[in-house]
Amino acid sequence: MKRLLTMLALTSIGGAQVALANSELQKLIDDPNQWAIQTGDYANLRYSKLDQINKDNVSKLQVAWTFSTGVLRGHEGSPLVVGDMMYVHTPFPNTVYALDLSKEGQIVWKYEPKQDENVIPVMCCDTVNRGVAYADNKIFLHQADTTVVALDAKTGKVIWSVKNGDPSKGETNTATVMPVKDKVLVGISGGEFGVRGHVTAYSMADGKVVWRGYSMGPDSDTLMDPEKTTNLGKPVGKDSGLTTWEGDQWKIGGGTTWGWYSYDPEQNLVYYGSGNPSTWNPTQRPGDNRWSMTIFARDVDTGMAKWVYQMTPHDEWDYDGVNEMILTNQQIDGQDRKLLTHFDRNGFGYTMDRVTGELLVAEKYDPVVNWATKVDMDPNSEKYGRPEVVAQYSTEQNGEDTNTTGVCPAALGSKDQQPAAYSPKTELFYVPTNHVCMDYEPFRVSYTAGQPYVGATLSMYPPKDSHGGMGNFIAWDNKEGKIKWSLPEPFSVWSGALATAGDVVFYGTLEGYLKAVDAATGKELYRFKTPSGVIGNVMTYAHGGKQYVAVLSGVGGWAGIGLAAGLTNPNDGLGAVGGYSALSNYTALGGTLTVFKLPE
């Protein structure tokens, strides 16, 4: 109780500044000319009201200008635009540029953090970073070495910095942060090193810790109330983050929080997901391993969890639950509902009531998903909300040192972190997906701080008897749980999507194409080959009365780790190198921002 009162007291400090910072950022988010937050808005819609570029003229797009980041490896995330300024980030070493849009992208300032290169081999799945954040006239960067930095947005000078983790223990960062009210919400990476996941709220003004909520551990760590925090409508009970672990395994339990965050101002709740439990060998960690693989709804001011839902109890396949939570207001059965839609790595698309945590829909968004037949949707069942696992594809039931073959999806999921978009005009979600299966052989592994704690060998490949490729770009109805249309791609679609009021949806491909398709039908309207594979997120903004579309290219990420890190062993990159070996025939390394516009 003392700890909770202390946290509540901290949240009341600087009330006048809270309102100012909050209203300033919200005003920018509401202005379609800006792109002030990585997710487009707090709801993670990635939808723009700009319509100067539309389905009738998008075929005329041309390159307006380009900018080289000077860094190789995978370029995820997107630039931000606030007024005349564009802020561009890079993978490690996490350089940040401020570009003046009124002067043809002239560099105003450049921030070059000095980081120990020893953090690179501790980073799973490439040295990516998913972007900077803006609020309160500051640019916030979470570096690979877990240093959180607040920079003066006008000068690039460091205002404050704090350390969020310890790379010597495997704690790193690949994610962006989310500014909410007077706080900056920050996660942690390192599930493959036995890191125990957490989300921390830092004071936007000075970097002091306001609260920290862990994914597993006692209630005092997970910030749960045994009676008030619910799971599918029922109280979670005392120390729910301990009782489904054997001994002290929860201390190295994984459940890291390197994905995206969303926020509902009316509910004052932040939503995010936790990752895989450690190790990848399920035999070594009996139990449901709560609260890994879980959707969290936390109070922004206190960090207290209102509700949770674990999608993949006792994960056996590395199906992290960190993908974005998309918040919409839609009608179901004639009733207005506040919804949360989540496309999980496990291949199921979930629709939930974001106020209560009620599960409404859980359906496969890639037909080849085979590790489970369905999710039990009977509220009266003891297995309500749990997937029905197929024994043939259970890596635990098949046992250690046994290669379980033909599991779909692969560990990188039917979708990884690459964010989907939603159009309120069509009420469809536009989802970049991975169409990939795997062989998975778990083996016994011991924990040593700072050393890999994986315990499985993987190989990946396209599904048999399918279109032969490794990706689809789909339109999804979250109320029916059905695919409306699907575009096959030769490789996984690792780029974040963008939907616009011009009835156009944009996405990028691993070969390097920016594509524009009709939001209603999926018909391709435009494509352009950028200098490298696209794993960045497409964004749009307006400046000087003209709408622009921009995307970072620079192949890498988990799917492109072979190219990015020069790996050739098919089993390297946690199994991805072999599956994506043909990618080198289509693209090469290079970090470039490409900006598009309509002709004069």
Structure overview:
This protein has 6 helices and 40 strands. The protein is 7% helix and 34% strand. It is mainly beta and 600 residues long. The termini are far apart. Strands 16-15-20-19-18-17 form a 6-stranded mixed beta sheet, with no helix packed on it. A 5-stranded mixed beta sheet has the order 1-34-35-36-37, with no helix packed on it. Strands 2-40-39-38 form a 4-stranded antiparallel beta sheet, with no helix packed on it.
Compose a concise summary of this entry.
This protein is mainly beta.
Q: What's the arrangement of secondary structure elements?
A:
Layout (H helix, E strand, L loop, with lengths): L1 H10 L3 H16 L16 E2 L13 E7 L11 E3 L2 E5 L6 E5 L5 E6 L21 E3 L2 E5 L4 E6 L5 E6 L14 E3 L2 E4 L11 E6 L5 E6 L4 H4 L7 E2 L2 E2 L26 E3 L4 E5 L20 E6 L5 E6 L14 E8 L2 E9 L4 E6 L5 E6 L7 E4 L11 E3 L5 H4 L5 E4 L13 E3 L4 E7 L2 E6 L13 E6 L9 E7 L4 E8 L8 E3 L3 E5 L4 E6 L5 E6 L9 E5 L2 E8 L7 H5 L10 H4 L12 E6 L3
